[in-house]
Amino acid sequence: MVELDFEKSNGLIPAVAQDWQTGEILMLAYISPESWAETLKSGCATYFSRSRNKLWKKGESSGHVQKIHSILVDCDLDTVVFKVEQLGSGACHTGHRSCFYREVDGETLRETEKPVFDADKVYQVKK
Questions:
Q1: Radius of gyration (Cα) for the chain, nearest Å?
Q2: Are 98 and 90 in contact (CB under 8 A)?
Q3: Which residue, 97, 95, 99, is CA-closest to 119?
Q4: By the 8 A CB rule, do 85 and 67 touch?
Q5: Mind listing the pLDDT tens digit for each residue in 70-90?
Q6: Which regions of the chain are under pLDDT 70?
Q7: Which residues contact 60 (CB under 8 A, 6 or more apart)?
Q8: Cβ neighbours of residue 8 closer than 8 Å, sequence gap 6 or more
Q9: Predicted local confidence at residue 125, as pLDDT
Q10: Which residues pair with 111 in a beta bridge?
Q11: Which long-range contacts (CB under 8 A, 24 or more apart) does 102-107 make?
């Protein structure tokens, strides 16, 4: 297995998910040594959820899985790019295809994309 440098950043390193065909940046998350091993083993993006403090296989609750096509590793071995096939409507928990759906417009944020799925239904958010 390719050994990444998880020590520099207290056990987690950034992982950028990018559409393997279009180059669109879908999301940024973090991986741990365990999620890295699971990603390599399963062929599907597995991250470490900092808010839940546990491994998180992308799509486990939404069905919007990220199938790995290739992985790029930076020169310092402490950041990766997952080139993925996004299975399902989108990557963002807000219902958007990409987590990067807003653009700085002066001193505000302007939404540049509309949601592609109903996040409340997909994640069964309790109100």
A1: 15
A2: yes
A3: 95
A4: yes
A5: 999 999 999 999 999 999 889
A6: 125-127
A7: none
A8: 76, 78
A9: 52
A10: 102
A11: none
